[in-house]
Amino acid sequence: MAVTATFGQPLLLSTKKTWKQDHGTATSSIGPRRIVPSNSSSSTLAHGNFLASSSILSLAKKTLKQDHGTARSSIGARRIVPSNSSSSSLASGDFLASSSILSLAKKTWKQDHGTARSSIGARRIVPSSSSPSSLADGDLLARSSILSSSSSPSVAFSSPPKRSRKTVFLFYCEETRALAERVAAESDAIELRSMNWRTFDDGFPNLFIPNAQGIRGQHVAFLASFSSPRVIFEQLSVIYALPRLFISSFTVVLPFFPTGTSERMEEEGDIATAFTLARILSNIPISRGGPTSLVIYDIHALRERFYFGDNVLPFFESGIPLLKNRLQQLPDSDNISIAFPDDGAWKRFNSQLQHFPTIVCTKVREGDRRIVRLKEGDPRGRHVVIVDDLVQSGGTLIECQKVLAAHGAKKVSAYVTHGIFPNKSWERFKHDDGVGPSEGLDFFWITDSCPLTVKEVKNRRPFEVLSLAGSVAAALQI
């Protein structure tokens, strides 16, 4: 077999000259494997020739010399090991290579040949942990830190090593227990930690963190649910206490930021409670790793993201990717249109759903009533999905549903990230089991950002819960 390095003729001569200086001969002592220029005709290439860019070989040679004081490497034992390996771990003939060189080689190979791999017959570069029975004659063994493993019997050059996942201790309140368990199931790097949630006789919280010393120096997160003013105080007490336990970093996951959803700052005297809650969260004590990260999904008023101070790092996520994934699974996925019940919903979500045909509704006032009308788009014959960030009483969604059905929609479904449904208003939504799109929905998708709602609508059509667990698990690794 031959090792073929791709480079120009002057560098080829220079390489042969250097080899002769180092080994007393201008030919390589590694059998039939040769180094030939990249412009060699296919008829002159032997089976197993290795192709590499001249810039790669030149840089590799330079790096080897910098690392080890020599530009040569005997390729006898046929192993590729990191260039910073200790001398005691090296076998005779080991080939020393810098990871930056191999990464660059992979990039250059792809530019030259349209692929990041090169089949060289029986000579493969395989993980050093491979069993002897799986190795073929001439295989080169490579450590995983240098070369990424490949399922194909071909040479695979390394990419930069992936960042190791951090272990996160996830605390939760009773409302978010189910979601926390799903988050932990998404990643073995997330460990659940429970607390004692009790009350004194006077009704005030009696809270305790078991084994508080065990989380020192660890990454810690808290999964909150501010479903009512009654539970906010006890959870804030925990949120303020955890960073003071000498933890490495702290993240608060608050899927639904509840205040301000119905507030209208229209005249002097109106109080913005959303700003108040944002100020409270902005003053969470700083942990050893710095300010607290605050993960929120589809905050209702976009201006509210600017309410937070500099002592907290808001991280705004969206549930829309869950909806898009679910829509792709539908049998009529090629017949989906997205409807927005008002201009506010269009401004918020249009950029994430712009590859779907779009329908926009609008609210107009007629006397003392506000009614929904079709502003633009054509729902005829389509499966129309109404998209908004949250639902309370559901009146606007129902009016939008009727308008779409009246304009010829074949099916109507709905999605909101936050299903609040006070006073069991979810009971207003019926399943379309033959009653038609004006009276029933095909699907009503919500996320599990409001745990109390999830318990009420579970296994009730048309409702279907799309879990935020995977998204939360990913956010905790940032």
What do you see in this structure?
By secondary structure, the protein is an alpha/beta fold. The chain folds into three domains: 9-156, no CATH class; 168-317, 3-Layer(aba) Sandwich (Rossmann fold), CATH 3.40.50.2020; 320-447, Rossmann fold (3-Layer(aba) Sandwich). The chain contains eleven helices and 21 strands. It has helices at 9-23, 54-68, 99-113, 177-186, 229-241, 273-282, 320-328, 343-349, 395-406, 451-457, 469-475, and strands spanning 79-82, 95-97, 117-118, 125-127, 140-142, 155-156, 168-172, 190-193, 196-199, 205-208, 219-223, 249-254, 292-297, 312-317, 336-340, 358-366, 369-376, 383-391, 411-419, 444-447, 463-466. It has a seven-stranded mixed sheet with strand order 17-16-15-18-19-20-21, with helices on both faces. The protein has a six-stranded parallel sheet with strand order 8-7-11-12-13-14, covered by helices on one side. The longest helix is centred in the first third of the chain and has 15 residues, at 9-23. It is globular, with a radius of gyration of 31 Å. The two termini are 46 Å apart. 34% of the residues are buried.
